Amino acid sequence: MSTLAAVLIVRNEAARLRECLESVRWADEIVVVDTGSTDETMAIAREFTPKVSSAPFSGFGPLKNHALGLATADWILSIDADERVTPELRREIEAAIARGEHAGYFVPRLSHLCGRPMRHGGWWPDYVARLVRRGRGRFTDQPVHEELRIEGSAGRLSAPLLHLAYDDFEQVIDKLNRYSTLAAEKMHRAGRRAGVLTALAHGAWSFVRTYLLQLGLLDGRRGLVLAVLNAEHSYYRYVKLWRLRERERP
User: Fold this and answer.
1) Among residues 68, 60, 74, 53, which one has the least CA distance to residue 138?
2) Confidence band, pLDDT 50/70/90 cuts, at residue 175
3) How far are the Cα atoms of 42, 64, 84, 138, 206 from residue 76, in angstroms, in the given order?
4) Average pLDDT of every residue of the chain
5) pTM confidence score
């Protein structure tokens, strides 16, 4: 029988980690890498697994690759603390591992905004590569929006991975700020340029794409909120890139 490891990187996730680990308690191995928590995150993790370690934050991609390397099971399921594996998804994962037809699998992720699932606005079906044979996949070295690249054939599962993205707007604002900074720094290193008008244009386009083209309006008030959040994220990303360039000028 093939074995499975659930792998996570975490920081200050005490409020959400227990429910996440409960959803993967059935895995043969659980690996948790902490990046400097100041709450009870590590203590909670140790209730579920002895494989709890610390590492400095080096970007989501490099850090997740580090975590992959700590797993010893035949297959690896990479998840985040705000995600939950449903019983239906568990059964699909176990069946896929037993068949062994592919090197990895994409899973549809159903994201929630303030307690409700979002089925439009580009959030569903959000297929993400999360299940892979050990040694047959690595994350891209991006500091944010990293992707798991599967080496070999890939299949698709149908049961969703629940993604409890934001419980409240404090989390939204905090994540928007952190992720827009990381994205701006990445674009800056790549030599990208932007101005205020560029930021406004990208923000406006993000709103139109999310709310109209991707039918976010069908999710009601939360669809409108999501469109505004996407617009803000895009706007701040390019404004921060502009400011990085401004600081370089003599």
Assistant:
1) 68
2) confident
3) 21, 12, 15, 11, 34
4) 94
5) 0.85
